[in-house]
Give the backbone structure.
Amino acid sequence: MSRSLKNRLFLFFCWGSLGFSVFVLVFLVLTIVWNGFQALSLEFLILPSKSFGAEGGILYQIIGSILLVFTAVLMAFPIALGTAIYKSEYLKNERLQRMSDMLIYGLNGIPSVIFGIFGLIFFVNLLNTGISWFVGSIILGIMILPTLVLTAYQSINSIPHHYRESGLALGMNRWGVITEVLLPMGIQGAFTGLLIGLARAVGETAPIMFIATAFSGAGIPGSLLEPVSSLPTHILALAQNATDPTALQNAWGASLVLITLVGIFSLTALYFRNRYKTMIVR
Amino acid sequence: MFVSVSKAGKNAVITSTIISMAIIVIVFAVIGLQGLQAIPEAGWSLLSRSWNPGQGEYGILSMIYGTTAVTIVALLIAVPVGVLSAIVISELLPSRYRILVKSSLEVLAGIPSIIYGLLGVAVLSVLIGNLFDLSTGRTILAGGIILAIMILPIIITLTEDALQNVPSRYREAAKVLGLYNYEVMKDTILPIAKSDIIGGILLGLGRAMGETMAMMLVIGSLDRIPDPFYNILVPGQTITSKLGREIMESAFGSLHFNSMIFMGLLLMAAVFTVTIIAQRNIRFGGRLYE
Amino acid sequence: MNKQSASLKIYSGKQTSITCFSVENFSVMIDDTLILKELNLTIQKKNIHCIIGPSGAGKSTLIRCFNRICDETDGLQTEGKIFYDGENIFDGSVNTSELRRKVGMVFQKPAVFPKSIRENVLMGVRYHKKLSLLEKNQIVEEKLRAVSLWKEVSDRLDESARSLSVGQQQRLCLARTLAVEPDVILLDEPTSSLDHVSSRAIEDLMGHLKEEYTIVFVTHNIQQAYRIADQVTFICDGNVIETGYKDQLFNNPGKKQTKRYIREDLCDC
C-alpha cells in the first residue's frame, strides 16, 4: 500500500470516528430533549406525584434533589477549601503532598455504588440513623469532596508568587496573606469547583438510593432523619417499568428536568471558569 | 491579636485536611471489614459460578465476568473511536471549532448515568433486540455499548489534552522532512503522548467498571457466565448491577449481605488501583468531571 | 575590613555616612548550587545604592536577603551575617514582620491586590498600627503625593486598583510600601516591566525619596544606574567584583571586568 493511500485511509477513519462520536452524542441529546418535551407541562413541574409516579408531577423530586445537593455542597465546601489552602500554602513535605494527592484522586475514582453501601453500613446500620436525607447529603458531600479540593487548590496555587511576597514584604503574616490576598483572588476559581460539584451531585443515584430516598410517600422532610424523593431515583423507578408508556414518558420528562439542572450548573461553571482565566492572564 | 487569629486559621485548615484524608481511609475500612467477614464463612466458594441465595450459594464469579466483559466491549469501541476523534480535534480541526467541541464534550460527560440507563433500556436494548432477533435486548453487548458512549468524552478529552501537550516543534520537525500526517502521528506524536493517553484510557476503564445505574437497567440481570463465554448477545450481570439490585433485599450482616460487600470490596480495590496508576500520568486541568 | 569600605570612608562627604546594612562573609546556596559566595558589602544610609551585574549574577538573591523574603525560596540556605541596625537579621530571634516593616520592598512585577486604590495603600500599614479614619485619609493622600500619583487618582480612590496602567500600578506599590514608614526601600528591577516614560517617572521619584530613605536598587540597565545612583556595586557570578561611588566606578573602574561590563554589557566571570 502506498504511503499516500495509507494516509488517506487514516484520515478517513479519523474523520469517520469524529463524525460517529458527534452523531451519537447529538442523537443522545436530541432523544432526551424530544422525548422529555412531550412529558412536560406546567402541572408536571409543580405538582407532587401520585400513583407511584404514573400520574402527577415531580415537584417533590425537584425539591428533594435541590435540598440534597445544596446541603452536600454547604458541608463539603469549607472542608475542601481548608484542605486546598493547607496543601497550597502550608504543606511543604513532598512525600505528604504526593500521598494526599493519591488519597484525593483515589476517592474521586470510587464507584458511586460503593459510596451508597458505605452509607448503608456506616450510617443506616452502624449508627442507626435509618433512611435519612441528611445522611444522603453527607455521602454526596464525600463524593464531591475531591472535585472541590482539586479546583480550589489549583485556583489558589496558581496565583503568582510575587503576590504572596508583596504581602509578606509589607509585614503581613502568612494567614493575613491568605485571607487578604489569596482568597479574594482565588475564590472565583474555587466557586467554579462548587458549581461542578453541584452538577455532579444532582445526577447521582447510587449513593442515595439506599439511604436517603423513598419512592412514595416522601414529601418535604420535617427533620434530619426523614427520607426524601429525588429526580434520579425517581427516574430509576420509572425506568424499571419501561413497558408502561406513561411511566416511560414521565421518566423522559424527569430526565429532561434533571439534565436542565445539570446544564445550568455546568454552563455557569464554564462561564465562570473562562472569565476567571482571562482575568489571570491580564 | 493577629497572632491568635492566625493560629486559629491554621488549625482550621489543618483540621479540614485531616478530615479529608480520613474519609477515604474510613470508607475503605468500613467496606473492607464488612466484606472480609464473608471469607471465613464462605471461603473459596465465593469464587464459584453459581449465585443462589436461597440455597446458600454465593459464587461471585459470574458478576466478575460480567463486569470484565462489558468493560472490554466498551474499551474495544471507545478507545479507537475516541483516540481517532481526538486526533482530528487536536491536529486537523481549525481552532475556532476546537473550543466549541471541547466544551460540548465536557458538558456531555456530565450527563447523569441514570439517563444513560434510561436511553439504554428504552432505545438501545429495543434496537439490539430487534436487530439480532433476541428475546430481550438487555445484553452484555447493550451494556458495553452504553458504557462506550459514557466513557467516550473522557477518552476524547484526555487524549486531546495529551496531544496538545506535545510541543509543536516535534510536529514541525517531522513535517519538514516530508512526512504525511499519518506518519507524523504514528512515529512522532503518539509515542510521545502515549503515557498521557494511556492514563486517559485507564480513567475511562475505571469509570466503566464502576458504572452502576446504566448497568442495572441494561445488563439483563442474569447471574450466569454465557456459554460460549464470548457470546455477548445474552443477558449477564455486573458487580455494580448486582449490588444495586440486591443489597436491600438481604439482611444486614448476613452472609448474603457480606458476600455482596465482598464483591464491592474487590471492585473498589480494582478501580482505586487503576485510578492511581492513571493519575501518575495526568495533570488535573480544571475540567468539569474527572 | 577591606579596600572597598576603606575607600568609602575616604570619600565620605555626607553628614550621615553611617552604615545601614553590613554584609559579612555572606553566602547563599539554593538546592546545591552556590549562588552568592562569601560576599562583603556595606550599604550607607540615605543613599541610592545600585546593584548591577549580568543576569543570574545573584543580584535578586542578595536584595531578597535584606528583608528575609528569601525565606520563601525553597531549598535556600545561608551562611554568614547581614547586619541591620546593629543586629544580624539572620539570627533566629529576629521578628521578620517587624523587619519587613522597616525594610520595604517593591518587586519587578507590580502586585496590586484586588481591592480599591485606597485599600491598597493602607494594606500594610493597618497591620502595624491602629488608625483613625482621619489618619487613614491623611496617609493615603500623603503617600500618593509622594509617588506623584495623587493628581491622577484622587478622584477615584475607591475604584479597583486593577484599572490603573502598569506604570501607575508600580507607583501604587511604592506608595503602599511607603505607607508602613520604612527606613529602607529595596527595589528589585522595578522598571523592567514598564515602558520608557513610566521608568523615568520612577527614577525621578528615587531622587526625591533618598532624602528620607535608604534605597537599594537592583537593575540590569547600566544607564539607569548611572542616572540615579550614589554608590554602585557590581556583582558577577555571585561575587562582588567592585563597589564604590558612582563617578569613580564608571569613570575610573579599578577592575578589568568592571570596565568591560560598563562598556560592553558583557561579563565572562
Observations:
- The longest strand of chain A covers residues 49-50.
- Residues 192 and 270 of chain A are 8 Å apart (CA to CA).
